[in-house]
Structure formats: structure tokens, C-alpha cells
């Protein structure tokens, strides 16, 4: 019932992509990153599939996402990648057995003070190895790490950092970050587990894998590497963005379509009107020619994307018309293609899909 626009997500494809990560980093434990509503795929659904498929832990951005996972019955360790924003959050962290990635001395002191031997707080310490976003300095990290590792109120998981240029694996900056984290660990009397590799590093930089890897985007079938598609990497799109044609219009040469001067017909054009637009997260600045599939056949968009509608070219598809299925994102139209046309990255395309879209799980 209702508008025919929907997001369809595949548990089989998600489990397949996790297996790709497991094969690529077979000696590492897998912390699957499901922040931002699992990159637009549905947090609780994705985490349930990944836990059943063998994920060892989850990474989320904030405590609200961690609470949602526990309320959904997720039992694996859950780490809040930005730590906590106020000391009062530590009560909820302890009550729900959530883990923290600590990146600031004040967070460290609060955990050392509040953690108890009866309920130790799982913690990674984040080291700034070159991203210069969050993390303690490599010089200060050994002292903080030793204190955390010795504390009975901390369940010590080790050192964690984040790669800045792994999407361009030949960049020598990557080797510098890997060496930095290993040097910090070598300063600790007993060493410790390490985590550095994101999706791009997991796929292209095997010497970055270490004890934990943290795949995110690749789990959902999109490529994190410049110039490579998800299909080339053995990944399958998890998300299908679909709708149906609700009206067919005919343009004569010289007639304009939609808002402004987005498209003018140079010859007779048969137009399908699709009830999905930038109000659903389909980027407004995609231009005429963006690939779509109608009835499993390739065609293109026409004119400007509206808030609630998009136009597709049916001129070469006489058998297609009202009620024809339209794929705007999925195996036939990968996120990388849309991202290129919108001047952005696949992450933003997937995370930008709105909750007003009906979601169907398979």
C-alpha cells in the first residue's frame, strides 16, 4: 500500500560481504562498523545479520546507537568510537556493558575513576597516528595505555588508530601510520592488541590488518578504493533503491521538462515519472544521463530531480510504462556510479537515504 518507492536490503549479500572481509583478514578479529544507521541500511537489522554471520564486535558513533543495539538484543561487544561526551554517560555504558574508544585525557581519567573490578569497562585507546582528528599523541599514548591496562576497572582491548589515506593504498603516508602504531605498542612492556585497518586497508593493505580490523562500507557492497568497483572486489550491493513509473508523458522537440532548464527535448521523448526524489535522499544535483534501470533494462534520468519525483527516459523502452519497476540504486546502478555523478563518495549516497522510504528486508 502507499507510495511504491522503497529500500530493499539483502541479508544474504550482507553475510557474503562479511565473508569477504573474513577471508581477506583471516588472522584478525572483525569489528563491524554500523554507525549512521548501518550506513543507511538499518542499524538493528544489519547488526542482527552480522552477529549471526560471525562478527566479533560492533563499532558505533555514539551512545544512542549503542543503546539501540543492546535493546535489539545484540550480545557482542559494542564500542562507541567517539567515547562519551559527558561523564554521566558512563552509568549507561556500565549498565549496558558497552565499550569505549578513549581519545582524550579527561575521558581516560573518568574511566579510571568510575570503572570497577566487578564491572570493568571495555576500552580501546585511540592514538593519533596521522589522521589528526581524534586521539592522544604517540608520545603520550604509552603512559595512558599502561595505566588503562593495569586498572582493574578496565577491560583492556588495546590501541586503535584510523587511516587517513587508505583509499589510495600506494600513498606512502599509509606506511607511516602503520609504523607509528607499531612503534607505540613496542614501547609497552607487554605489548597489546592493535586495530588500524578500515575497509580500504583491509582490502588493499594486508600489513595493516593487525589484531582487529574494522570494515564498514565494504560490508554494504560499495568500494572504498578509488578507481575500483565493489563488484571488482567481490562485493555485492546490500541495498536496492526501487520505485515504479506512475505516469508516462510525451515531449515534442523543443519542449522543456520539469523545473528550470534541466532538459529540453531535441526529438520526441517518452518520459516516465517516478515518485522518488531528493526528499528521499536521491541527490538533487544528479544531471540528465544518470544511469537507472527500468524493467531491468538500462536507461537514464532526464532533467532535474524534484523533491518527490524523478524523470526517466522510456524512449528506447516501448514495452515499459506505468507500473514498470525502476532501480535507482543497486546491482545495476552501483553507489559508486551515483557518487561520481553527484560529485561525492558512496558513503554519502548510502547514508543520505531518508527514513520515509519504506524498508523491506530479505
Automatic annotation (TrEMBL):
What SUPFAM superfamilies does this protein map onto?
Answer: Alanine racemase C-terminal domain-like, PLP-binding barrel
> Which parts of the sequence bind substrate?
133, 307
**Active-site residue numbers:** 35 (proton acceptor), 259 (proton acceptor)
What Enzyme Commission number(s) does the record list for this chain?
Answer: 5.1.1.1
Keyword Isomerase applies: yes
N6-(pyridoxal phosphate)lysine modifications at? 35
Q: In which pathway does it act?
A: Amino-acid biosynthesis; D-alanine biosynthesis; D-alanine from L-alanine: step 1/1
Give any GO molecular function from the UniProt entry: alanine racemase activity
Assigned keywords, A-Z: Isomerase, Pyridoxal phosphate
Which ranges carry the Alanine racemase C-terminal domain? Answer: 238-362
Q: Which InterPro entries match?
A: Ala_racemase (IPR000821), Ala_racemase/Decarboxylase_C (IPR009006), Ala_racemase_C (IPR011079), Ala_racemase_N (IPR001608), PLP-binding_barrel (IPR029066)
Task: List cofactor names only.
Answer: pyridoxal 5'-phosphate
Catalyzed reaction equations: L-alanine = D-alanine
Q: Which Pfam families match?
A: Ala_racemase_C (PF00842), Ala_racemase_N (PF01168)
PANTHER family for the chain: ALANINE RACEMASE (PTHR30511), ALANINE RACEMASE, CATABOLIC-RELATED (PTHR30511:SF0)
Protein family membership? Belongs to the alanine racemase family.
- Function, please? Catalyzes the interconversion of L-alanine and D-alanine. May also act on other amino acids.
Q: What is this protein called?
A: Alanine racemase
What taxonomic ancestry is recorded?
Answer: Bacteria, Pseudomonadati, Pseudomonadota, Gammaproteobacteria, Thiohalorhabdales
